[in-house]
Write a structure and sequence with these properties.
It comes from Aeribacillus composti. The chain is an alpha+beta fold. The protein is built from 4 helices and 5 strands, in the order ααββαβββα.
């Protein structure tokens, strides 16, 4: 199990280092774990999803419209396992792990399976995926902040 965890974590790290973005990171994990993944903000709004989400919903918009997530997370700072039923009659389980950015909860990564249950490997990998998503978010945020700073300096020099 630990060899597989290390192999998956290495692939996630490579996705981050190769600039695959959040979607690429989620898709890498979805393929390796044979599941669907979501990244939601702290208000439970969808930010990004793996392509395999279509196995559970016809498209990501169905997830947003249905608001299937009615269960409150008991411990926001820990990984939680919940069972969810959608309006379309699907029943599935979500393993949810918080994504911390600059010591605040930015959002949550959810690993989704159709009632197969979760292994210790799932718990290990989802926590690491949350960390890797946080690194990607920090990279994107820093790049945006630097771009804005450069634009401001250019504008100041013109005037």
């Amino acid at each position: 199990m630990f060899k597989k965890a290390l192999m998956i974590i290495e692939k996630l790290t490579n996705s981050l280092l190769n600039g695959c973005g959040l979607k690429g990171i989620l898709n890498t994990l979805a393929v390796e774990m044979n599941c669907a993944l979501l990244l939601e903000n702290s208000h439970r709004q969808l930010i990004e999803a793996s392509d395999s989400l279509r196995k559970i919903y016809l498209n990501s918009a169905d997830y947003v419209r249905e608001k299937v997530e009615t269960v409150d997370i008991k411990e926001k700072c820990n990984t939680n396992r919940i069972k969810v039923s959608s309006a379309k009659g699907y029943t599935f389980e979500k393993l949810i792990s918080p994504v911390f950015v600059r010591n605040n909860i930015f959002g949550y990564v959810s690993l989704i399976r159709e009632s197969e249950g979760f292994s210790e490997l799932d718990y290990i990998v989802i926590k690491k995926a949350a960390s890797i998503c946080a690194m990607q978010i920090i990279n994107e945020t820093s790049a945006f902040e630097n771009e804005q700073r450069i634009k401001k300096r250019i504008a100041e020099r013109r005037f």
